[in-house]
Amino acid sequence: MSEFKLYSIISNSCAGYGIHRELYKDECYINPFVGACIYNDEQYVDFLERYSTMKYIDMVECKHTPKFIPLPHPIVDPNHPVCTWGCLDIHWIHESDLQVTMETFKRRLERGIDVEPIMIWSSIEMFQGRVLELIKRFLNLPHKSIFVTNVESDLELKYDDTMHHVIYCPNLVQTTIINLVVDFAHSSPEFFERNIQGLPPPSLGEAQRFA
């Protein structure tokens, strides 16, 4: 049982998955993006701004050629499914079966549809390069957000620190993002609220828990 209130950790990479596993251990996945990447930065911010309504829209197979595609990489299935969710192109880089992917996405989305989100982004996962205007929009979302950056001047950006936070680390890699956010969660109970009453145990069987 986690010491933290249950949040849906939303990110454009596998960082959200890693943060969920560190904070919630064996709790069911409620982040529908586990196993996915979102390579279009502007789409990602547009999506986050519309999150409260987007979560009620069906995801469908992508019928157009995405503007941005991943570079060849050993962990990326070159034939991975690509889906469209409202304004968002989602690359399921670790998957191969479209139908299974869509069923898994829907199941996880339904589990977390009423759970408060925390949005995660980092300067090294701005896939089209650093765009200050997008960072400012990210730090002005209607939901909590955390921006992890290797640019020290980002600490000077203006935002509501009850809702948003910037973490600076000069030597940033994805595992560092996960560790920094988890450390922040442990040190900031006013941001990551504590689970006073305790989460109920998942009702799913062990084999289904992370499905």
SSE blueprint and pairings:
Blueprint: E1 8-10, H1 15-24, H2 41-49, H3 51-54, E2 59-61, E3 82-85, E4 88-91, H4 98-112, E5 117-122, H5 132-138, E6 144-149, E7 164-168, H6 174-187
Parallel strand pairs: 1-5, 5-6, 6-7
Antiparallel strand pairs: 2-3, 3-4
Describe the structure in your own words.
This protein is of the alpha/beta class. The protein has one domain. It contains 6 helices and 7 strands; from the N terminus they run E-H-H-H-E-E-E-H-E-H-E-E-H. The strands form 2 sheets. The chain has a 4-stranded parallel β-sheet with strand order 1-5-6-7, with helices on one face. Strand 3 (82-85) and strand 4 (88-91) form a beta hairpin. Helix 1 (15-24) runs parallel beside helix 6 (174-187). The longest helix has 15 residues, at 98-112. Residues 201-209 have low confidence and may be disordered.
